Amino acid sequence: MWRDAVLVAGKDLRIEARSRVATNQVLPFAFLVLILFAFALDTDQRALTRAAAGLYWVAVLFSTLLAIQRSAAIESADGARDQLRLSGLDPAGVFLGKVAAVAVQLVALEVLLGAGVVVLYNASIRGVGLVVLTCAAATVGLAAAGTMYGALAAGLKVRETLLPLLLLPVAAPVLLAATKAWQAALDGVPADGAPWLRLLATFAVIYLTLGVLLFGSLLEES
Amino acid sequence: MTAPATSSRTAPGAPASGDGAPASARFRSVPRWVTPALGVGALVASAAAVVQGLVVMGPTTNQGEYSRLLVVHPPVATVSYVAFGVTAAASLLYLIPRTRARAWDQLAGASAEVGVVFTVLTLVTGSIWGHSTWGVWWTWDARLTASALLLALFLGYLALRRVPAEETVRAKRCAVAALIAVVDVPIDHYATSWWRTLHQGSSISLTQPDKHVDSAHAVGLLLGFVAMALAYAWLVTQRYRVERLEARYEEEGLSLALDARKAEGGVTAPTGPSDATGPSDATGTSGDPPVGALSGERP
């Protein structure tokens, strides 16, 4: 399973590195969202600083949608899904590999967006450890839930509109918990973030487990 | 894409499950008397709840006349949870190869639709109650937010059910989506309740029977629960029947139309009668006339 996961993750990341969609489209989009928030709040510096945590995670969530759509599109084009089944890889390994590839992209995006928030919104990070842990847990959770829904919507005629409708409500607790944890890390007491961090970790574990159990049946018949 | 998909579906699927499996035959035929009985029961219980709520129960000191919403709001909310629980259980049974049957998928869809209706009712009645006691129609309270998320989750599920796709593919994806959505419900609950809490606690508890509620209100609440549970069951059996008729229409519609067309052209179709009389389940009451009418005209 783990070897298959590494194989699939390597494949997805190589495709992304060569196509450069993540760097040329997803990343600029995320920065654009940060700038648009500044317009919406009328460059009120204090409001931006106060809302920095929430705005950051909304930007991450929107970018996640794009990354998931990419990740699912790789498998739906040119009958790649059938080839994946023919290859005899463990479905759980395929799932974990795709989650890992999406997570790696999201982490890169989050680092750059974090720098953007610090520079543009004048946010200061107090609890570095909490910020890093929150990012790790939230990213794994988002990637796991997103990969499931990406596979669910793949190959359907209405996938572009269906995916946000399916994924955003499921990801809502991640947005809430990650925002709260970041607020604690940015301008609160970092210790307050602990329960939110636990919630994020629970979310990640639950959706990883669901994916390992259910991804096979999604891959099987479509 | 389609060729390997169909071949793989017949290979592992046919011996293990298939739609003719006993699991589907077991509860495919809801006895005819069940649905009307549920409907009548729901009407009687609702009437009793209305009398109890509007006549017998008096206004309370804290909330005045609005406390009568106790008969409606908690039962509706509870039933919506039950409905999504049924959807999840049916989806799980559909995903397990041994119990896979199309009927589970149909039951999951029927229950989810009724559950969405009850969730909307929960939000509406809660909004009215909130306006009277808190002074605002909506507030970002934990339970309100969680209910709104629940509604969004299952609206997405219903949207997925409506997507045009091959039947088995769609059913399987819907089952997975239902499980993902249901798993999210407790997480939403914890996230939002840590976020903020304004909603009053539970009005009644089993360990302290008369915590906040006098006996008239307890009876009203109980009648409300019974009425809403029966109404839910009635709606689900109706919706389940419609799902089955729709599926049957899709399966037989084309062959019937072809037979009718052949009959017009004077060609006798050898497979026609066996196709038309094939479905022998007794569930279709309103679906039978068109089928019978078409097959009756042919000879």
Average pLDDT number of chain B: 75
Helix residue percentage of chain B: over 70%
Low-confidence stretches of chain B: 1-26, 206-210, 272-299
The separation of the N and C termini of chain B measures 41 Å
| Helix percent band of chain A | over 70%
Shape of chain B: globular
Rounded radius of gyration of chain B (Å): 24 Å
Radius of gyration of chain A: 18 Å
- The rough form of chain A would be described as globular
Class by SSE composition of chain A: mainly alpha
- How many domains, in number, for the residues of chain A? 1
Encode the helix/strand succession of chain A as letters.
HHHHHHHH
- How much of the polypeptide of chain B forms β-strand, as a percent range? under 5%
Q: Note the run of SSEs of chain B as H and E.
A: HHHHHHHHHH
What's the number of extended β-strand segments of chain B? 0
What is this structure, in a nutshell?
The complex is a heterodimer of chains A (222) and B (299). With 222 residues, chain A is mainly alpha-helical.
Question: Topology, please?
Answer:
The complex is a heterodimer of chains A (222) and B (299).
Chain A: H1 2-19, H2 21-40, H3 45-76, H4 80-86, H5 91-120, H6 128-153, H7 159-187, H8 194-220
Helix pairs in contact in A: 1-5, 2-3, 2-5, 3-5, 3-6, 3-7, 5-6, 5-8, 6-7, 6-8, 7-8
Chain B: H1 2-16, H2 22-28, H3 34-56, H4 73-95, H5 102-133, H6 142-161, H7 167-195, H8 215-264, H9 272-277, H10 288-297
